[in-house]
Structures are given as C-alpha cells and as structure tokens.
Amino acid sequence: MASQSFAKTGLLSRLILRQDRIRIPLWLIGLSFFTLIIPIAFIDLYGTEEQRAGIIETMQNPAMTAMVGPADFANYTLGVMTAHNMILMTAAVVGLMSILLVSRHTRGEEEDGRIEMVRSLPAGRLSNLNATLLIVALTNILLALIVGFGLYLLDIESLDLEGSLLYGAVLGGTGLVFVGVTALMAQLSESARGTTGLSIAILLLAYLLRAITDVSNEKLSWLSPLGWVTKAEVYASNNWWPVVFMVVFSIILLFFAYYLNAIRDLGAGFIPSKPGKRHASRFLQSPAGLALRLQRTGTISWAIGMLLLGSSYGSVLGDLESFFAGNELIEQMLMQQEGLTIVEQFLPQLMIVVALLATIPPIMAINKLYGEEKKGRIDHLLGRTVSRTRLILSYVIIAVVNGFVMLSLATFSLWASGTAVVEGGLSFGKIYGGALAYYPAMVVMIGISALLIGFIPKLTSLVWLYVFYSFIVLYLGGLFQFSDWVGQISPFGFVPRYPVEEIDFLSMLVLSVIALGLIAAGVIGYNRRDIE
Amino acid sequence: MSILKTTNLTKKFGKFTALDGVNLELNKGEVLGFIGPNGAGKSTTIRVLLGILKATEGEVSIFDKDAWSDAVEIHKRIAYVPGDVNLWPNLTGGEVIDLFAKLRGSSNTKKRDELIEKFDLDPTKKCRTYSKGNRQKIALIAAFSSDADLYILDEPTSGLDPLMENVFQECVRDVKSEGKSVLLSSHILSEVEKLCDRVSIIRQGEIIESGSLNELRHLTRTQMLVETREPLGQLGNLKGIYAIQKKGQSTSFQIDSNEIDNVIKYLSQFGIVKLESAPPTLEELFMRHYEGTEDRVGAGGTD
What we know:
The complex is a heterodimer of chains A (about 525) and B (about 300). Chain A is an all-alpha fold. Chain A has helices at about 1-5, 10-20, 25-45, 50-60, 60-70, 80-110, 115-120, 125-155, 160-190, 190-215, 225-230, 240-265, 285-295, 295-325, 330-335, 340-375, 380, 390-420, 430-435, 440-455, 460-475, 475-480, 485-490, 505-530. The longest helix of chain A is centred in the N-terminal third of the chain and has 34 residues, at about 80-110. Chain A is built from 24 helices and no strands. Chain B is of the alpha/beta class and about 300 residues long. Chain B folds into two domains: about 1-215, P-loop containing nucleotide triphosphate hydrolases (Rossmann fold), CATH 3.40.50.300; about 220-280, Alpha-Beta Plaits (2-Layer Sandwich), CATH 3.30.70.260. Chain B has a six-stranded mixed sheet with strand order 6-7-8-3-9-10, with helices on both faces. In chain B, strands 2-1-4-5 form a four-stranded antiparallel sheet, covered by helices on one side. In chain B, strands 12-13-11-14 form a four-stranded antiparallel sheet, covered by helices on one side. In chain B, a hairpin with a 2-residue loop joins strand 9 and strand 10 (about 205-210). The longest helix of chain B is centred in the middle third of the chain and has 16 residues, at about 160-175. Chain B is elongated and about 70 Å long. The relative contact order of chain B is 0.13. The interface of A and B includes residues 111, 191, 377 and 381 of A. Chain A: This is ABC transporter permease. Chain A: Keywords: Membrane, Transmembrane, Transmembrane helix. Chain B: Belongs to the ABC transporter superfamily. Chain B: GO terms for molecular function: ATP binding; ATP hydrolysis activity.
C-alpha cells in the first residue's frame, strides 16, 4: 500500500528534470557564480585588516544588523565579512528558488489539470509530490556542495574547508526549509498563485522577524528559519546546529505535506472556498476593474508586506540613534552634513531597499497582462469592445498607481514607527521626499515591462533580471566601490540620495520622459502584434 | 447584403502558412457553416476576423469595416464564443457573464436570466469548479443575451450534453429568425446540416468547397438500393455508377447526383420492385474531401 502511493516516482522525477533541464542549471550557475565572485572581489577591496576596519565602522550599527544580521566584528576576517554581507541575502534567494520550483510542479501542475492525467496512469497518489521534492531537494544539496567546495577552492586564507562547507550547507538547508514550506502551502491553497504567495509571505515574515529580533533580542532570532542562517556564524565559530535544525524542520514540514496530500481530493485545498456572487459588481465591469479584481489578494498581501517592512526598519531607527549617541568619533564622522541628524543620514540606505522592493508589485501588476494572454483569456476582452490601447493602458495605470501606493505605505509606516522611537521625531517631508525621488525610476521599470509586452512578449520576464541587477549594484555598490556607470545602467542609479544629496529635478524629469516614451512605444507595439 | 467578407486572406506564422487565400462570405440573415478537420485553420481564420491576429495578406471586412483597424467598432455588434473557454478561476460564472455583457456594451438582463435558466447553470460557483461544458455555457449565455448582429461561434457545442445542444440550436434559430447572421465553425456535421444555409469547407488553410448544402450534394453521390423483377443488365457500363454490390435479389450502388435521371430510366426497364435512396450526408461529403486524393469528386460542375 505505502509503496504503491509512490509508484513511478522515478519516471516522474525524470519528467521534471526534462521540463527543468534549463531552469535548474540556470539557478545553480547563477547562485554559485554570484556566491563565488564575492570573496574574489572582496580580496581586492578589503584584503587587509585596515581596509576592513573602515567597513566595520559603517556595518556596526543596528540598521545594518537589521538588514544583514549580526557578526563577530572583533574577528572580522575576509571570510566573516563575506558571510556577514552575503549569506543571508543569498539564502533568501535560494529559498525563493525552492518556492518557485516546488509550487510550479505541485499545485501549478495540478491546477492545469496535468496531475489528473498522471494520476489516471498507474502512478501513485503521492508520486508527483515525491518526485518534485526529490528533484528540488537534490538541487539544493548540489548547490550546497558546489558552493561549499567552490569557496574552499578559491584558496583564500580565511575561507577554510569547514567554514566553506557550512556556508554551502546553510544555503542548501534554507532551500530545504522552503521546499517543506511550499510543499505544505501547496496542500493548503487551491491555486499555484496562492501557494507561491503564501510561501513568499512566510519567507518575508521570517526575514522581518529576524531583523527585529536581531536588533532587540538576539536569542529570539532562533524563532526564524532565516535567523538560523546567521546563527551558523560561518567562518567564525562554525556552528552546525542550525543546519541540523533546518533539515529536521523541513522533514517535519514534508511529513505534514505528504499526509495532507494523501487525505485530500485532487484539486481541493484545505483553505475553504466560499460560494460566490451571482452578479458582477459595478466595479468589476471594466478591463481595469477586472485587472484589479484578479490581483486583489496579491495587492493586499504586498501592501501588508510593505507596511511591515517600513515599520520594522522604522523601529530600528531608535536603536540606531542611541547606539551612536555614546560614540563621539562616529558622531564627528557622520556629522559633516549640516542640519541632518544621524538617522536622516542613514535613510538613503534604507530607501534603496524599500524602493526596489516596492518596484516588485507594480511590475507583477503589468506583467499580469501577458500572463492573461498566455492563459488565453485576453481574447474575451479583445473579442468585445475593448481596444488594445485601452487594455494595455489599464494595466499600465494600475501598475503606476500600485507602485505609488506601495512606496507610500512603506514610507509612511517607516516614518510612523521611526518617529515613535527616535527622540524628537522624524521629518516626514525628508523621508517621503527621499522615497518619492525613486518614483520616476520605478515608472521607467514599468515602462520597460510595457515595451517588452508590446514588442517581444516572450521576453517579458527579462525585466526581473534588470530589477535584480539594479538591486545588486545599488545595494552593494558602495561595498564594491563600483564606478558610477555600473549603477547608471539602471534608472535607480540616477536617483539622488535625499536628504544627504539634493533633489535633482532635472534627472527626475528626464527619467519621467523616458518612462512615458517607453510606455507609448509599448502601446504602439501592442496595437500592432498578434495576440498569442 | 454581405455582412462578412474575406478576400484572399493569407496568414503566415514565420515560414508556416496557416491560411492560404481564404475567401469567405456571409450574408445578412444567413447561417454559414465553417467546417474542416483539426488544424485546418478554422480558429486562425476566426481570430483574424476578430482582429486578434493580423492578416499577412488579403482583405477582411465585417460590416464593411476593416477587421483589424476597426476592431472595437465592429465588436460592438459581434458576439463571439470560443471553442476552448478559459475563464478566471477565482471569479464566479455570474460575474463573468456580467463582465462580458458590460465589455460588449449593451446587454439584456431579462434574456440573460432566461438563458441561465434554460442552460441550467449555477452562476454562483467559481469558474475553477466548472466543467468544460459549463464553461461553454457561460460563453453561450454571454453571447446570446447580447443584442449582436453577427454571431461568431467556434465549435460552440463541444462539451455540451445533447439536451443543451438542443437549447443551443434553438438559440441559433431564434437569432436567425431575427435576421441576424451566424458563422458556425463545427465538427458536428449533423448540427451544421440542421442549422446552416451554406457551408464552407477548409482544409490545410485553403477553402476547398463552398456553397449551399444542395449545391454541395450535387457534387457527391447518392446511395441507392434497388430490387428488380428481372435481373439487372450491365449496370457497370453506365456513366456515374460506383461501388456495385449484389445482395441476393437486390443491388446497392452509388450514383453521381447529376446522373440519377439516366440511371432511373435504365432501371425501369427491369421492373422495379423496391427502390431506396439515401441522400449523401455531410459526413460523406466531408469524408470524401479528407480521405485524400483517391476518391475525389471528379464529375459535376463546380461553382
């Protein structure tokens, strides 16, 4: 009986490998390359202890702890520095990889009706889940080994064998945890979107929980799976317990996932669905209304995420101030800027993260237009009295408004929670001004999506690479001392770091004009091409 | 008066020619059957008619307007039912019907409720729970509750049960009696025979036959069974007779429709006891065209 539930797992595993023969290697190559290039870059920039002493000054504060986690600054070797700056963010991306791969092959396949075909063949009830987990778990293990041995083979003094293997194991372990999380969510939710959305929400919550607890009470960080990443103290004390926790935790999650999968009906979930409305509300009866309605849950979830992100960053600002209050040296160093408090000088760094994360939901909103096309539902609209211009502009406007709302929500909650903890409060104008400076660049990104949808829809997802590139060069730009042009390949590279820098209205105007041009071109292209 | 007309419509996807000089014409108050095997280009043609695909060559006009550039204007008077209805899984059937009505412009709520009743649909369910037939019903209800002048139906009854198929046929007859035009692409030949005034047959992107059912029947053969008092002579020598088979006293054969008169005159010499004739079905017509070259219609006037 038990063995029958898993019949044909091998065959299905090969099917998954065949489908993902490009996707999985791309993830592995991308993540390994990205991880291995960092210490090589660091050795040029921060090879000596003196060079690292400079970076310690800027890293050793609660705001940075919230972003990348704590570190042993007394023993800040190149290895410790690499792990401190990179491991948490990389682990989060590995978690994302697991989420996307598992969701696609479990609930995604089921939703599209392919699991029904498989189940009608002599394959076991749990075989597809089993095959998916097998392949994605192996992907994570392979990643752990490549990264582990890869880092060691770089032959850099402080990157010893044990630390390197632990580095890889932590990444792979985080991947396994999110394999478990997603497998469980795939049973609870009825749709692939829901599965991915819930799993990413858990990933973000784990990150925020770790951020808050790392600053307030480090012991509580053990509650977050992403807290375990920094608790491993790679290249310092090399603690393997977190990896054990990760493996055990993912096995527990998988056990529940298997159990729920075995007892539920095909196509059903455990989060109950309510009976729906008999008629459409007035709001739904337009292309824009429909687009908004389809993204309702996702938009609300992102809005909540943005509020949480803003308030967690804001809550750290109080600690930041008291941290610097006693340190005259740093106070002198930072006080060069007149009329600005220490907190205000730290704002631009937080704003980059807030602005780039706030760019994700509007891009999802506009890319949905192509997603609908692929699902064959655009014909319903274009076959009626909806013009292509009206259709694409509906999505553009939703995206543009969405981005504005997300940015504003995050900024507002950052200000609200920041002003509560910082003595004397914060200037709302300075914070909101700093955030709005990013808005034209965000609209340029939306414009690029519109352009791709208009002319080469198959390549729409390329925009995500561009967003990722922007994040890397801006977030890590200071650390790696890139030349200006590297940042300025991205529209975000032209955004002034207000309030430290002056607002540059000319570049904002130029970005806005470029954004409008891209959108106009996208509309023209969309009017000319065939719908798939 | 011509409602819909394509002239030399050609559509290429890269090097592949999906449609090769398609000519279609649909007049006011007429039901045109559009038949052809899978992959012949029926849906591609319909998507060009709707301005969703752009014709590579040729002219496509509906209501004397260009199908591509005046799409929105044209669609105000068109109702479309796709063959494969993909709906939004998290909206209810009722919501989708209302949405579709609103997107077209006008709608008739009384007619909508009547049709929901007739098609026996529960509009409060989410679309992800609907079967193929139920999703098809939603598209049909949305189409027939609208006040269109042209109905474009792409295999509209796939997935419907026989009872619902009847309801559908009733709907088509109703709109026809109101003087509306219908383009009906279908595989179900009995349905086409019942509903259509004229038929166009497409194969590998080309229209290979067009005309009224009567005209097309002239192109094919009638099945006959005859029993005579005296033994039949050399039937095989006659023009237009095929597939002669002796079954005891009686003989069955196929006969070119334009040779019927001659053959009957000949048969009557032998004293006819029993004569049965079956008109060619669309099925036979269809099969003849698709079975390939071996048995193509040779004789008879094409139009």
